[in-house]
């Protein structure tokens, strides 16, 4: 296992340690087997034992936000009759169905959503749309260019966080319209905050800032002092 040593780094630090969520949380994380115990420990440190729903997709924000799976559906038309068609299913549909189920059906009081990314993520080496980004990420990971790696995660996590914000706002508006006499505090979709976080391979967590400047990372030339 690769272990990142981070002298003078601001790992671990997240504002959540100062003010942990009071209500329930929905956690989106990667499937990486190296960090399952660290992820549970992080949630425990925030006093969130048994107080969060956990949704797992390879690549966390990248997977849930950008990846699609191919599947077959049966369709019918005049020309061809009943036949099968291959379509792409966005993983984001599954994520939002889970979020909606947790809040609407299971009545979870979710007011915080964590997108927990991690360094040296295998999904970022295969699932990014631009194959050069996959190659670059793998190289940065091999070279332990943590700042470069973080940049990819910051962009992907923030893009998906924006999607979640938009989805929750639509749901909140719909609820308010259907329940005009309800108080704002009764709206289960109101006031949900999305946090973007990243974990290193020793389980330390820090915040990924929101909002962020959405610029594509540029490839680094090998420097002499590269570690
Ligand atoms: Zn991963």
Key features of this structure:
227 residues; alpha/beta; Beta-carbonic Anhydrase, Chain A; 7 strands; disordered C terminus; binds zinc ion
Describe this structure in words.
The protein is an alpha/beta fold. The protein has a single domain, classed as 3-Layer(aba) Sandwich (Beta-carbonic Anhydrase, Chain A). Helix content is 33%, strand content 22%. It is built from 5 helices and 7 strands. The strands form 2 sheets. A 5-stranded mixed β-sheet has the order 2-1-5-6-7. α1 links the parallel β1 and β2. The longest helix is centred in the C-terminal third of the chain and has 33 residues. It is flat, with a radius of gyration of 20 Å. The C terminus is likely disordered. Bound molecules: zinc ion (ZN). Zinc ion binds next to loops.
Helix/strand layout:
Blueprint: E1 24-29, H1 36-45, E2 52-56, H2 61-66, E3 68-77, E4 81-90, H3 91-105, E5 110-118, H4 131-142, H5 146-178, E6 193-199, E7 205-207
Parallel strand pairs: 1-2, 1-5, 5-6
Antiparallel strand pairs: 3-4, 6-7
The structure holds zinc ion.
């Amino acid at each position: 296992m690769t272990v990142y040593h981070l002298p003078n780094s601001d790992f671990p630090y997240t504002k959540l340690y100062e003010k942990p969520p009071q209500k329930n949380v929905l956690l989106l994380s990667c499937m990486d087997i190296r960090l399952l115990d660290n992820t549970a420990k992080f949630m425990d440190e925030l006093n969130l034992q048994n107080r969060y729903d956990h949704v797992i997709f390879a690549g966390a924000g990248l997977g849930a936000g950008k990846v699609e799976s191919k599947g077959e559906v049966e369709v019918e038309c005049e020309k061809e009759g009943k036949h099968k068609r291959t379509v792409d299913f966005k993983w984001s549909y599954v994520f939002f169905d889970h979020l909606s189920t947790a809040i609407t059906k299971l009545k979870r009081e979710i007011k915080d959503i964590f997108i927990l990314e991690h360094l040296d993520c295998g999904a970022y080496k295969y699932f990014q749309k631009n194959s050069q980004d996959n190659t670059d990420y793998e190289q940065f990971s091999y070279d332990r260019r943590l700042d470069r790696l973080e940049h990819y995660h910051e962009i992907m996590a923030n893009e998906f966080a924006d999607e979640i914000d938009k989805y929750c706002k639509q749901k909140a508006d719909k609820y308010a319209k259907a329940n005009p006499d309800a108080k704002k505090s009764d709206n289960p979709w109101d006031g949900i905050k999305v946090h973007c976080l990243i974990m290193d391979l020793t389980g330390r967590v820090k915040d990924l800032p929101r909002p962020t400047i959405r610029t594509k990372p540029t490839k680094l030339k090998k420097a002499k002092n590269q570690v």
